[in-house]
Input
Amino acid sequence: IYTLSVHDALPICYKLIVYFAEGPEAWEFFDMKRDPDEVVNRYHDPGSQHLVAELKSELSRLRKRFGDED
Output
């Protein structure tokens, strides 16, 4: 399980989670300001795709940096 959260100077936080297990990856994306209890997975929400893409890119960068690539 990888969790990547982004906190800006503003009180906004997003969390992207990917689960690796036997089978396909499973992704979750939460808007922590609107949904602090992480009830609504916005991963497939068209309005969230630019944020999902940014967080996936950052997760990939960090995995490479720390030698945690597939």
About this structure: The radius of gyration is 12 Å. Helices lie at 49-65. Residues 27 and 43 are 7 Å apart (CA to CA). Strands lie at 2-7, 13-19, 26-31.
